[in-house]
Design a protein that fits this description.
HSP40/DNAj peptide-binding domain, single chain, alpha+beta, four-stranded mixed β-sheet, Helix Hairpins
Length: 317
């Protein structure tokens, strides 16, 4: 294995906190859950984890700096075991307290990632703590994952909310729907899947967004088609339209055409705590369902004096 300092991108004088921070940044980027099916990324994740496992142990780091052990944690002069031998696998056989300060680099990740062993278990099929206190051959797979389908109303998917889910074991939990959730997004609930002596699997909630009767979505913008009358389009008007969080009044400019789009800033889908998308109000001119003779006569009279061809510029001739 390469020099663990180079793998984590830190100097030999880096503090324990700097090493932990560097590892967190790389792990978020290279975690197998974020890169499903990427064997090359999986190998890099193993590499940074092994590097952190060595450098986060104050005693091992000191021995490595003095040249007493190699990057795999093996005494100098002995052949390294590689990831499957005395290096990577051996580093995982320590108890929780052997890590420098006992600190958990994933404490802020949430989702039940209690230590590096749990992270590795997600893609190596290893049980939590399975290698500790037992031979490698005694390891057993953790419980299987269980997948649930959850229907989310359109507005709730956009703005976020909570939904109650009943698991296969009868347990009921409240699931937080993140703002901006999209069709097919999945929520992973650690340890709420099938039980096993080696550790429970996860519950995976797959979200399906219910269509809305008048809203549609494009990225973080919400689109609304607003029907307006002929007088409103010709003369201009103020009309009330719905948004995700209530009704607002918008001004229809005088002489508006169908397709004219009005932008309501910040009335779309949140992309962060402070930034929201917009609502796009597209005007659609609607004639009365039962036009009167008066309207027909008025338009006919007007057209004789103001004939125009709206298709002329399209080059359809």
């Amino acid at each position: 294995m390469r020099d663990p300092y180079d793998i984590l991108g830190v100097t030999r004088s880096a503090t324990a906190d700097e090493i932990k921070s560097a590892y967190r940044k790389l792990a978020k980027k290279l975690h197998p859950d974020v890169n499903p099916g990427r064997k090359d990324i999986e190998q890099k994740f193993k590499e940074i984890t092994a590097a952190y496992d060595l450098l986060s142990d104050a005693a091992k780091r000191a021995r490595f700096d003095r040249g007493e052990i190699d990057a795999m944690g093996n005494d100098r002069g002995f052949a390294g075991g590689g990831f499957g031998g005395g290096g990577f696998g051996g580093a995982r056989s320590r108890g929780h307290g052997s890590r420098a300060g006992g600190a958990d680099p994933f404490a802020q990740f949430g989702g039940g990632m209690e230590d590096i062993d749990d992270i590795l278990a997600q893609f190596m099929g290893a049980q939590r703590g399975g290698a500790r206190g037992r031979g490698a051959g005694a390891q057993a797979p953790r419980g299987g994952d269980e997948t649930y389908s959850l229907s989310i109303p359109f507005a709730e998917a956009c703005l976020g909310g909570k939904r109650r889910v009943t698991l296969s074991n009868g347990k009921t939990i409240d699931v937080t729907i993140p703002p901006g959730s999209e069709e097919g997004n999945k929520l992973r609930l650690r340890g709420l899947g099938q039980s096993s002596p080696a550790g429970a699997g996860d519950a995976i909630i797959e979200m399906h967004i219910e269509p809305h009767s008048y809203f549609t979505r494009k990225d973080n913008d919400v689109i609304l088609e607003a029907p307006v009358s002929l007088p409103e389009a010709v003369l201009g008007a103020s009309i009330t339209v719905p948004t995700l969080d209530g009704h607002v009044t918008v001004k229809i400019p005088k002489g508006s055409n169908s397709g004219t789009t009005l932008r309501l800033k910040g009335k779309g889908i949140p992309s962060s705590a402070t930034i929201k998308g917009d609502m796009l109000v597209k005007i659609r001119i609607m004639l009365p369902e039962s036009p009167t003779e008066d309207l027909a006569e008025l338009v006919e009279k007007w057209a004789k004096k103001n004939a125009y061809d709206p298709r002329k510029k399209l080059g359809w001739e």
